[in-house]
């Protein structure tokens, strides 16, 4: 029997002990926010969006407010959302004046003539479609600025965020949002907003959101790889494990992913010391792991 499923992640990385509780609490809040949407009978895309917005607004994570700053001292944000029923996606890259890039990604999916907009063009589309711009300073926390000033990435922080949902109609949706790597070159875009790399959703297979070293994840097209493994007969957990194993064997990078298959089964796997994630299904069970 298929029911509702929602899984969220707060990024793969190496958490300092004092960051574990805030990261877990943030992920569980995002899970609760998205689950309330699904329980109300709303579509998977609504649940994904609300869960990711909750994480973008939490400075614990490298997405939205508190994201890593680039070499020039700005937060340049990327996000994507994909609808498994239609295979339509909307993505945004390198924006500096969008408080919740996942919201803009959805607007591109639903209203845009293109699938991926970046930089000033993406911000222009936001204004044209009724999404207000923010002051870039609103995205920068004192902690992020201190790390940038010291030119020292804090290894104990969390990273890219994402969610995958299956709704009552049997539709899958996946979303991913990130601030990218610390002190990155301006204009750098990693795997997160690229369809098939950082995110993928197909009602005939699975929804996937990835996190980790973007340049490595792109090499194996990790989200599409995991979805294809489900289509080939793997259950969600087996597909997640196989994708991470391929990432480790074929690249020098580390990362992780969350997966929900067409039947509502979910999986999570990672090769980093930590990946905070939580999942819930109709059948009343909640899982949560570092």
Tally of distinct domains: 1
Please name the CATH architecture: 4-Layer Sandwich
Classification by helices and strands: alpha+beta
The overall pLDDT average reads 95
Please name the CATH topology. Glutamine Phosphoribosylpyrophosphate, subunit 1, domain 1
The CATH superfamily is (Glycosyl)asparaginase
How many H/I helices? 8
Largest sheet: 8 strands, mixed
Give the total of beta strands: 12
What does it look like?
With 290 residues, the protein is an alpha+beta fold. It has a single domain, classed as (Glycosyl)asparaginase (Glutamine Phosphoribosylpyrophosphate, subunit 1, domain 1), CATH 3.60.20.30. It is 33% helix and 25% strand. It has 8 helices and 12 strands. Strands 4-3-2-6-5-1-11-12 form an 8-stranded mixed β-sheet. Strand 2 and strand 3 form a beta hairpin. Helix 1 runs antiparallel to helix 2 and helix 2 runs antiparallel to helix 3. The model has no long low-confidence stretch (mean pLDDT 95).
Outline:
This protein has helices at 17-39, 44-56, 101-111, 119-128, 142-150, 214-219, 222-231, 236-250, and strands spanning 5-13, 77-83, 89-95, 116-118, 161-166, 172-178, 199-201, 206-212, 255-261, 266-270, 274-281, 286-289. It is α+β, with helices and mostly antiparallel strands and 290 residues long.
């Amino acid at each position: 029997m298929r029911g509702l499923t929602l899984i969220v992640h707060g990024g793969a990385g190496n958490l300092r002990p004092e960051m574990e509780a805030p990261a877990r609490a943030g992920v569980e809040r995002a899970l609760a926010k998205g689950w309330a949407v699904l329980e109300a009978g709303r579509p998977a895309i609504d649940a994904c969006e609300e869960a990711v917005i909750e994480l973008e607004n939490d400075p614990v994570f490298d997405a939205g407010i508190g994201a890593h700053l680039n070499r020039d001292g700005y937060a340049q944000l990327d996000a994507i959302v994909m609808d498994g029923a239609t295979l339509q996606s909307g993505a945004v890259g390198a924006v500096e004046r969008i408080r919740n890039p996942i919201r803009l990604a959805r607007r591109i999916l639903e209203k845009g003539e293109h699938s991926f907009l970046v930089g000033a063009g993406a911000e222009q589309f936001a204004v044209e479609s009724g999404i207000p711009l923010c002051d870039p300073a609103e995205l920068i926390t004192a902690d992020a600025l201190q790390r940038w000033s010291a030119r020292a990435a804090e290894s104990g922080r969390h990273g890219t965020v994402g969610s995958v949902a299956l709704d009552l109609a049997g539709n899958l949706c996946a979303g991913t949002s990130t601030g990218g790597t610390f002190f990155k070159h301006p204009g750098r875009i990693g795997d997160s907003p690229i369809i098939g790399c950082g995110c993928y959703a197909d009602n005939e297979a699975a929804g996937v959101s990835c996190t980790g070293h973007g340049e490595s994840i792109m090499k194996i097209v990790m989200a599409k790889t995991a979805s294809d493994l489900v289509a080939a007969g793997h259950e969600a957990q087996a597909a997640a494990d196989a994708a991470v194993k391929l990432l480790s064997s074929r690249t020098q990078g580390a990362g992780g992913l969350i997966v929900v298959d067409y039947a509502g089964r979910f999986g999570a796997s990672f090769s980093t010391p930590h990946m905070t994630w939580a999942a819930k299904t109709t059948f009343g069970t909640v899982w949560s792991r570092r």
